[in-house]
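During the no-cost extension, the postdoctoral fellow (Dr. R.K.) reprocessed legacy sequence entries with the updated structure-token encoder. One reprocessed record is reproduced below for audit purposes.
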Amino acid sequence: MSIMCERGAPADEDDGYVVAPEGLSDAQVMGDACVVCHARWPRPRQQLGVLPDGTRVYGCSECARLAADHHTDPFDRHLLATH
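Re-encoded structure tokens follow.
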């Protein structure tokens, strides 16, 4: 299970959602699988957030589109849990 936590700025710029690494597969951490749905092909190319250490995590185009469609006020805090 991965959890997208509150939006924030883990580095000097706002990279998106901070994703809890617990439950992510090695492929998801390495950017070889979608951080939401685990799809490996085509390789995910849309950045959906970062791990607490600043490593970027990626999503497939479909999950990225869903995330963009759900764009909310940056001050709203939401959680997205997947398994």
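Confidence is low (pLDDT under 50) at residues 1-13. The first helix runs from residue 26 to 30. The remaining legacy entries will be reprocessed before the final report is submitted.
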